[in-house]
Amino acid sequence: MSELRKDPLVDRWVIIAAERGRRPDDFHSGEPARHCPAGASCPFCEGSESKTPPETWAVRPLDSKPDTPAWQVPVLPNKFPALRVEGSVDRCGLGMFDCMDGIGAHEVVIESPDHEWEMTTAPPEEIELSLRAVQERIEDLYRDGRFRYVVAFRNYGALAGASLSHPHSQLIALPVMPKRVKDKLASARDHYRRKERCIFCDIIAQELMLGDRVVVEHEHFVALSPYAARFPFELAIYPKEHQHDFGLLNLELRTDLARILQTCLRYLKQALGDPAYNYMINSVPNTTPRPGRPDFWGTIALDYHWHIEILPRVTRVAGFEWGTGFYINPVAPEDAALFLREMVNTEPEPAVVEASE
Amino acid sequence: MSELRKDPLVDRWVIIAAERGRRPDDFHSGEPARHCPAGASCPFCEGSESKTPPETWAVRPLDSKPDTPAWQVPVLPNKFPALRVEGSVDRCGLGMFDCMDGIGAHEVVIESPDHEWEMTTAPPEEIELSLRAVQERIEDLYRDGRFRYVVAFRNYGALAGASLSHPHSQLIALPVMPKRVKDKLASARDHYRRKERCIFCDIIAQELMLGDRVVVEHEHFVALSPYAARFPFELAIYPKEHQHDFGLLNLELRTDLARILQTCLRYLKQALGDPAYNYMINSVPNTTPRPGRPDFWGTIALDYHWHIEILPRVTRVAGFEWGTGFYINPVAPEDAALFLREMVNTEPEPAVVEASE
């Protein structure tokens, strides 16, 4: 079983997942690449259902059985999970150190039965479906009170940490609140206490007014390159109306989100030549009022605002960044946004016509 | 001029160094590798002095002139600095955003005139010299009250962000205190307030007592794999006696440090096959009592303890880590330490005989 350990100096937890049992040789040239051609050898291709753990959730025809072909967007437990569902949340100490069992959940959302499916060219309805899968899984995992936070993310390309090339996203449920989330919540709460306004709403309003970092604006969403972007062409997507919980998205919003997400990824592909990237869906923690929780009476959390961060992996993180938490970004976010915006005009496909700027 | 910008959500500063002026094409396959064969085309090889900015510091024969061959360990301003010395520390606002001029310093310590010099095989005196160069530069930079923190680091290998292969380290002086340093100082201060003991001293004492994460122990230093290591084979080196300031190292300590640092890097090379790595020297900020400052009367800061972190870059940071600040480490630090310790016995070279365990 893996173990959660807390750094005594910086309130940071790590997952020691030693049962994945690697030898030093495995690291000789970085992360071992697990190649995955389409077909029988790919564990996520149609027909490989017997090679993976049983599905947790799927969209499939009414007359089909679980764990058989004909699925669309199944969600499976990760075969090599960093955390497992079984165990207690009891904390233990080792002298001055803190640890707990590595409980949690680690799931994989297979975005299409087609190995060659690409988010940049897929019909938006299919992206919408995989966003719905993420949404449903977060909702379900939050029914387990042990889980304080669920993060959903997509690693694309080996440089971004993807080990299988079949299109997929992942979810990890954590029994402790991650420091990065805690920091964001604390800032947001502090701002709300002083101003009685959501800090994200304030940022969005200012960015829409200034306009120079906005990449594309849809009816319900805006994509921009953040003022203090860490990486070249880093992007963030926000719902324009205040919404704290990714679980509250309805079909109309999900569809608009699928479209703007696709537009962003297509622009990045065109600008940077199919870069590796990570994107993360940052929703609200499980401790906030939300549908399905006994304390939810239609209230909304006013101080948090869910969002997606997209990080193209085109620069390397080096000693300066590791030592300080500072980042050096060689491309001003305004320049990145301008460059991407200008591609709207040269973009041949009709899918971006809805861009309202 | 570059610009410092603060993320309104997470108290994180970034350096927008757009004057380095890259086009999106430059990022097409990640960071452009600047190859650097030995000789005339390498800006750090002997004879290339005219290609670099004038030296700031160097060890050289008494009868030689600055910026001519015959140097050992010169320190040069970075030709493409992320931050520049000229400018004010005035902060400005842009609506709800905070920014300031990109002032600071960015220097390169050339560790040897020999392009093929390696830290794992060099005579320890030469490593000691480059540690002294770092020390002298930190001292000098801290005479400038605008600089709140100086971090020294070494990026080795392209995966660790090194763009030139000639052996070198770097220093960056910052006009704001980095969040990561602030967090460490806050924990250390909190511990000291409660216990009247240094948290680092407590950790070292416990690790030496338990022993299972200790890799090698010298007279003045101990190298161990931290309890909550983020990465496989991550190591940390601490002075065993309390010492808050890297600037206080004398020749004896510097020599011992050079040896234990070399042992660690040699072990990692043997275990992981010449991995890329970053190491960072984390000394005390400029705001703490220190020699040369008017408020220093021989006092020592009791709550901070300088240290070196060594991060082999053998796994990739992916969406989960970016989204949460959590890390998944597939090798327990005890296993890594055991593996490295066992190499002491198989190590052919005599340089590690001083290891006292």
Strand content of chain A: 15-25%
Find the structural class of chain A using helix and strand composition.
alpha+beta
Shape of chain A: globular
CATH superfamily of the largest domain in chain A: HIT-like
- Quaternary structure annotation: homodimer
Could you walk me through the main structural features you see in this protein, from its secondary elements to its overall organization?
The structure is a homodimer of 357-residue chains. Chain A is α+β, with helices and mostly antiparallel strands and 357 residues long. Chain A folds into two domains: 3-18 and 32-174, HIT-like (HIT family, subunit A); 179-315 and 325-352, HIT family, subunit A, CATH 3.30.428. In chain A, 25% of the residues lie in helices and 21% in strands. Chain A contains six helices and 15 strands. Chain A has helices at 124-141, 179-195, 199-210, 251-272, 319-324, 333-346; strands spanning 3-6, 13-16, 57-59, 72-77, 91-94, 97-101, 105-110, 149-156, 168-174, 214-217, 221-224, 235-239, 277-282, 307-312, 327-329. In chain A, the strands form two sheets. In chain A, strands 3-4-7-9-8-13-14-12-11-10 form a ten-stranded antiparallel beta sheet, sandwiched between helices. The first copy, chain A, has a four-stranded antiparallel beta sheet with strand order 2-1-6-5, with no helix packed on it. In chain A, strand 1 and strand 2 form a beta hairpin. The radius of gyration of chain A is 21 Å and the shape is globular. Mean pLDDT of chain A is 87; it is low at 350-357. The interface between A and B is large, with 95 and 95 residues. Strand 2 of chain A pairs parallel with strand 15 of chain B.
